Amino acid sequence: MGTLLPTCEPSLPQLRPRGRSSWWTEWRRGVPAPARAGAQSPSGVASASASAEGLRKGIAEFYDESSGLWERVWGDHMHHGFYDPHAPASLADHRAAQIRMVEEALSFAALSDDPQKKPKRIVDVGCGIGGSSRYLAKKYGAQCKGITLSPVQAQRAEALAIAEGLADKVSFQVADALEQPFPDGQFDLVWSMESGEHMPDKRKFVGELARVAAPGATIIIVTWCHRDLLPSESSLRPDEINLLNKICTAYYLPAWCSAADYVNIAKSLSLEDIRTADWSENVAPFWPAVIRSALTWRGFTSLLRSGWKTIRGALVMPLMMEGYNKKLIKFAIITCRKPE
Ligand code: SAH
């Protein structure tokens, strides 16, 4: 991989939060000593899998706990909205902005509405409660399978599908994006909306997306990245790493990577038509809106009832804004195609 990769695939301890009561600390309690220290077991395998298991568990618990609140306040799409830069947005616009995000991603990837070419089999990797899955299944009349680490999300996604009369079109299961429970070459649209940031091994993540893609399939990744490094840099600055560490702690994220890193990975997998864009300006109104919604009486009381992981997530929201304002955090789309 290119010179940027060390920031993309560092061992998790590189971004280890320094705070005392972090999820890292909680996680360490449940992880065997060699993994905690980042030391290698004789094979190196046991420690890596123990770390990955701790992260998976944290992600599952975080979404088990917080998804109900998110749905009550924001609806079934658990991702940023897409806005016209610098245009004012009212609260009523946000749901439309989330749908627009899906549509913008499809059109960036130049997906065809032509009945002959439109996707028929879709996988939604990191599906939340299935907002994208149901939308895409309806839009294209396609079959869609969603995977999430959170059992609560999978159940809720199934219930919503039944309620919307889509039970024969969409299905959901608890499964790891890094070991997808699907044979090779199954799907003609591979969709990952804001789940890539949770993946501890970006190369394996993209590799799995490519594996389950059918020849000619489109792969769409919309994800949080850090800024691209300058040619003179080999890593982010310490203050930048520190800020990201705090966000990682609250949102159960491993090390971040840049959009350029994703492009390099896609190239190394011989994927074609690789395109990327920085949509940070288009998502700028989102976090201020989420913070405003948390500060309403309903939002605030629901938050207090939801649990510590959700509250900690809410407390970190201003840091997301700080990251965007400092041009450290980038909201990126990366699309590509599996060769025919
Ligand atoms: N794409 C959804 C949800 C985004 S929230 C939406 O836009 O509404 C992030 C999602 O990624 C959660 O559902 C979480 O369970 C999932 N996720 C994170 N890591 C994962 C992994 N390793 N395997 C499968 N899903 C994962």
From TrEMBL:
Region annotated SAM motif I, chain positions: 122-131
InterPro entries documented for this protein? Methyltransf_11, PiNMT-like, SAM-dependent_MTases_sf
* Region called SAM motif II, residue ranges: 185-193
| Stretches for region SAM motif III | 212-221
Any GO BP = methylation
> PROSITE patterns recorded for this chain?
SAM_GTMT
Q: One GO molecular-function annotation for this sequence?
A: S-adenosylmethionine-dependent methyltransferase activity
Keywords, A to Z, come to:
Methyltransferase, S-adenosyl-L-methionine, Transferase
One family name in Pfam for this protein: Methyltransf_11
Tell me which domain of life the UniProt entry assigns to the organism this sequence originates from: Eukaryota
Annotated ranges, domain Methyltransferase type: 123-221
User: Which family does the similarity line name?
Assistant: Belongs to the class I-like SAM-binding methyltransferase superfamily. gTMT family.
What's the name of the protein?
Answer: Probable tocopherol O-methyltransferase, chloroplastic
Q: What is the lineage of its organism?
A: Eukaryota, Viridiplantae, Streptophyta, Embryophyta, Tracheophyta
